[in-house]
Amino acid sequence: MRIAIVGATGEVGRMMLTCLEENNVQISDLDLYASKRSQGSTLYYIDNPVKVQTLTEASLLKHYDYVFFSAGAGIAKTFAPIAAEASELVIDNSSGFRQEQHIPLVVPAVNGDLLAGYNGIVANPNCSTIQIVLPLAVLDKLFGLKQLVVSTYQSVSGSGHQGIVALQNQRKGSVDKGIYPHIIDLNVIPQIGGFLDSGYSQEEEKMHFESRKILRLPELKVSVTTVRVPVIYGHSASVYAEFEREVDMHQAEHALQQASTIVYYPNSYITPLDLGNSNDSHTCRLRLGCDSKSLSFWNVGNNVRLGAAANAVEIFKMHRQLKAE
Question: At residue 325, does pLDDT exceed 90?
Fold first, then answer.
């Protein structure tokens, strides 16, 4: 198995290595790429040291079975097509290809069938989208999802390492805003990404588009408000969903309890601090919404694991499985 990771020294790149290791993936040839400043640094895979190389176009002319990208949309747009020409599957964690019609946007438990017989670039969805579409896909099959209103509470690690540094410095007394438009410590910021003409932010529009695409519901009505909160790891979401048919609460709870990618809490709730190393979508506080055709629930996921690295590795695993069948 020949694998490359682009952006290997970043938060998500390192977690990709960890998730591959946790799945005991046997790799015969592992190349790790990053920017020039990381050249020569050492990372480990199952206790084996691997030197980080500087990414160049020539790097990705080499044939790999799988190439993981976690280096931002600009790098992905430049280098992923090169990798896709030489290798079997490129899994990109950035927003660079998510809205491309011909490129699959995949959460394996929801629409992994798109990977069957496919080679090329696969887009890994937005972190908050991944965690909410898992329970929503279950509920959609039962009752027919038609409208969605979501508010997110997204941790600073979703901004990368600079977001963590900003919060930690402000907790020590710094008044430097860092990468944020306002102080994040002891505060919440209802803006993630720039604002568009619609009044929605870039992060909100991502979730609008991606929810429809992954759930295969192009007419789904969606309104999202994304909020940055002073939490290090773990994104939370308050979800209100309306359906075509009346909701059977017992049926909904049973289906969520049986779903392999969901941890359901019938009588309690979970916070980001409780997540640990979980790769699941945690769903709780399930209740009727405004009427018998609607539901509200609380959802929490580890944004670096479920929301990024772990989903990318699940794409890899499902592609391998479908290829072997």
Answer: no
Instruction: Give the residue from 209, 228, 227, 226 showing the smallest Cα distance to 218.
Output: 209
Strand 29-34, strand 48-54: pairing: parallel
What mean pLDDT comes out for the span 289-303?
98
CATH of the domain spanning 2-125+308-324, picked from 3.40.50.300, 3.40.50.720, 3.40.1010.10, 3.10.20.30: 3.40.50.720
The tens digit of pLDDT for each residue in 48-61 reads 999 999 999 999 99
Check 19, 208, 235, 319 and give the catalytic one: 235
Q: Is this model's pTM higher than 0.90 or not?
A: yes
Is 250 annotated in the active site? no
Question: Using CA atoms, how far apart are residues 123 and 114, in angstroms rounded to an integer?
Answer: 12
Looking at CATH, the fold of the domain delimited by 128-303 is given as Dihydrodipicolinate Reductase; domain 2 (3.30.360)
Question: Which among 127, 208, 282, 319 is annotated as catalytic?
Answer: 127
Other CB atoms within 10 A of residue 279 CB:
18
The span from the CA of 219 to the CA of 222, in Å, is 9
Decide if 127 is catalytic: yes
Which of 237, 242, 204, 238 shows the shortest CA–CA distance to 223? 204
Give ranges for CATH 3.40.50.720 in the chain. 2-125+308-324
